[in-house]
């Protein structure tokens, strides 16, 4: 599994885990993120059950597992959090932060020991070990209960499925040519995102944020100017393509 | 692990399959109960002439009622087996995931930090497997119990035939028919139970 440090600040760092070469080729490729301070860490969209062993093996290169005190699930999809039952055995004292509307659903993956923190629709701030991150509403982008995560210090936005692409395992973890990247993300956004109104609200909300890196759960990470190019592009396309049928 | 093979062969489905087959046993037990009621009515009508039939009809009622209770116990046990084998299967998958992580994290600085979770998962699995063995043993015992009762029913059938031959010709045909149905129901129950035990033994 590729592991890249995205940000290293005075008190915390961001790490991305992705492009697992041992992944079954019939399951979608996913990016997992970790925000780590000196004493604690949060895993963002820790991934599907198929990826658990690779993820666990990857994180223990950075920290003892019991320092992972928080998990975050942007929404309920299996590629996002079906590993929950195994994390529940590994991190019984951790807290899962996830949309309130999915609590009863996510517990089907197995959540006996982990504490479930239901994020309210309007979003929430999480503080741990001196770090503060924000859960930004991204409802209907694509799930009806959905959040992005913003770190104002690192200026990184974890956007979940927004900005995601249907990439190949050999593709770079970063967007290298924005125009070429559009072919990877176009269908995904037109078909998976259901609502023009939701799209506009999310764009309006994140345009107010100072973002240097936009990190989706699939595909490649946008840096610098590509972040704004992506927001402009998203604004220009029509979503909800499934309604044509 | 002792019952790994059972987990691999989807034991939880087998337990449910056994339970489903037992609906046939329940039906036959109800038939025995009905025939016992018919026999009782007939005994009451025939009076002193057939008094030796009374303990036989009482036995038939008892046998039917015991069989129905046993089937209920078996169904409960099959449900427990189904649940515990699923739990064991999930536990076994968790251990496999940890095993894979162990190989992949070889040389990682903090690889040892999930050893506790790994050992707990192994302990849980052993516990689940012991539960499964216990439940399966109990299921075998219950099936055996029904089978041995049906063997006893064979003896009762033979006695009943002898008794039927001695009653007045007015009632003889009726008693013989009741004994025939009783014998048939007991035979069907035995054959279904043997089939169930065979299915379990394959595992």
Q: Tags for this entry?
A:
heterodimer; A: 245 residues; alpha/beta; seven-stranded mixed sheet; six-stranded mixed sheet; 7 helices; 13 strands; 25% helix; globular; B: 203 residues; mainly alpha; 5 helices; disordered N terminus
What's the short story on this structure?
The complex is a heterodimer of chains A (245) and B (203). Chain A is α/β, with parallel strands linked by helices and 245 residues long. Chain A has 7 helices and 13 strands.
Structural write-up:
The complex is a heterodimer of chains A (245) and B (203). Chain A has 245 residues and is an alpha/beta fold. Chain A is 25% helix and 27% strand. A seven-stranded mixed β-sheet of chain A has the order 1-2-3-4-5-6-7, covered by helices on one side. In chain A, helix 6 (196-207) packs antiparallel against helix 7 (225-236). The model of chain A has no long low-confidence stretch (mean pLDDT 96). Chain B is mostly helical. Chain B has helices at 4-8, 11-46, 53-104, 115-166, 169-202. The longest helix of chain B is centred in the middle third of the chain and has 52 residues, at 53-104. The chains are: A alpha/beta (245), B mainly alpha (203). At the A-B interface, helix 1 and helix 3 of A face helix 3 and helix 4 of B.
**Which runs of chain B of at least 5 residues are low in confidence (pLDDT < 50)?**
1-9
Mean pLDDT of chain A, to the nearest integer, reads 96
Helical proportion of chain A? 25-40%
Which word captures the global form of chain B? Answer: rod-shaped
List SSEs of chain A in N-to-C order: EEEEHEHHEHEEEEEHHEEH
Helix content of chain B: over 70%
- Return residue spans of chain A where pLDDT drops below 50 for at least 5 consecutive residues: none
Portion in strands of chain A? 25-35%
Strand content of chain B: under 5%
Enumerate how many helices of chain A there are, as a single number: 7
**H/E element sequence of chain B:** HHHHH
Q: Average pLDDT value of chain B? A: 84
Largest interface: A-B, 22 and 19 residues
Strand order of the largest sheet of chain A: 1-2-3-4-5-6-7
Distance between the termini of chain A: 38 Å
- Main pleated sheet of chain B: none
Oligomer: heterodimer
